[in-house]
Amino acid sequence: MKHLLSAKDLSRDEAVMILDTAEAMAATQRHAVKKLPTLRGKTVVNLFFEDSTRTRLSFEAAAKRLSADVINFSAKGSSVSKGESLKDTAQTIMAMGADAVVVRHSACGAAHLLAHAGWIDVPVLNAGDGTHQHPTQALLDAMTLRRWYTPGGPDVGPARAGDGSPAPQGRDLEGARVIIVGDVLHSRVARSNVDLLTTLGARVTLVAPPTLLPVGMEDWPCEVAYDFDAAIAAVQPDAVMMLRVQRERMSAAGGGYFPSPGEYSRGYGLGAVRRAAMPEHAIVMHPGPMNRGLEITADAADDPRSRVVEQVGNGVSVRMAALYLLLADEGNQL
């Protein structure tokens, strides 16, 4: 595989290989000198047509820690604001000697178009395309879950819940129970996680009001529920992942997806009461940025079992792994 465009494209073996490589990368980051010479002489271009903090900085840190040169492109203040096309921008970037392109774009399929239109001939990594896919986010979420999930439950076999140590090599998520809650309609994170987590053997339940679920849910390899409290009681999850309410996309479409922020929070927000109803070992996840007080309260976000900050750190390791496996001579295995 030359590109990383979709979580759906990954086989179980490929996903596990990326996660195992990410664990190896994480181990190197505990050294006094965090840089590896692996991609010295390579140039990675971050081509971001959408605003981003975590993803852009994470890819930049990952590339630099592998000793690659990094060129950061932002649509704001560039020729894109003057009407330049994606094709012309891509060819301009290639003329500067790019060895890989990380792209984030508001249009679904933009990363696939960039990879297969014949405009460039280097690996393309999808950093989010519209409401479609965000594969490295799903991988970092899976890495986080692998570190905290105990097959068979926290009281079966070697204790891992509450441990957070690196997952054993070759480990998938067979049997893990994950609830993903919130704005599924606008979420590339939800789609990518459903694809990847089910590939790794997890059981995924999506919880959302009907207005925030896309058409065609019957084709998704997951269960769907509308009552958050009932889902917690029925599923007894190992992890609950809260999704950001994407108000900017709702405003563009005219709004009207739920009666009020207060009503949404009462029905689909994670607070102290719902956190207490979850199994003691269950972790709280969120892709960020968080709307505190809307989809998650401050108490839940800062709970000792919240893994939100750990997810950010794991994102650097996962992106180091992806760049290594796609670009390094000795690591080109995807």
Automatic annotation (TrEMBL):
Annotated GO biological processes are: 'de novo' pyrimidine nucleobase biosynthetic process; 'de novo' UMP biosynthetic process; amino acid metabolic process
- EC no. given is 2.1.3.2
Where in the numbering of this chain does the Aspartate/ornithine carbamoyltransferase Asp/Orn-binding domain appear? 175-326
PROSITE patterns the record matches: CARBAMOYLTRANSFERASE
Q: What's the top EC group for this one? A: transferase
Catalytic reaction(s) noted: carbamoyl phosphate + L-aspartate = N-carbamoyl-L-aspartate + phosphate + H(+)
Give the InterPro entries listed for this entry. Asp/Orn_carbamoyltranf_P-bd, Asp/Orn_carbamoylTrfase, Asp/Orn_carbamoylTrfase_sf, Asp_carbamoyltransf, Asp_carbamoyltransf_Asp/Orn-bd
Q: Which residues bind carbamoyl phosphate?
A: 54-55, 104, 134, 137, 288-289
Do the record's keywords include Transferase? yes
Q: Which Pfam families match?
A: OTCace (PF00185), OTCace_N (PF02729)
- Asked if the Swiss-Prot or TrEMBL record annotates the protein with the keyword Zinc, the reply is no
Q: Which GO terms describe its cellular component?
A: cytosol
Record-annotated residues binding L-aspartate? 82, 188, 244
Domain Aspartate/ornithine carbamoyltransferase carbamoyl-P binding residues, every copy: 2-146
Question: Which GO terms fall under molecular function for this chain's record?
Answer: amino acid binding; aspartate carbamoyltransferase activity
Question: Which keywords describe this protein according to UniProt?
Answer: Pyrimidine biosynthesis, Transferase
Q: Which residues form a coiled coil?
A: none
State the pathway, as annotated in the record: Pyrimidine metabolism; UMP biosynthesis via de novo pathway; (S)-dihydroorotate from bicarbonate: step 2/3
What is the documented function of this protein?
Catalyzes the condensation of carbamoyl phosphate and aspartate to form carbamoyl aspartate and inorganic phosphate, the committed step in the de novo pyrimidine nucleotide biosynthesis pathway.
What does the similarity note say? Belongs to the aspartate/ornithine carbamoyltransferase superfamily. ATCase family.
Record text on subunit structure and interactions = Heterododecamer (2C3:3R2) of six catalytic PyrB chains organized as two trimers (C3), and six regulatory PyrI chains organized as three dimers (R2).
The protein here is known as: Aspartate carbamoyltransferase
Q: Which organism is it from?
A: Actinomyces ruminicola
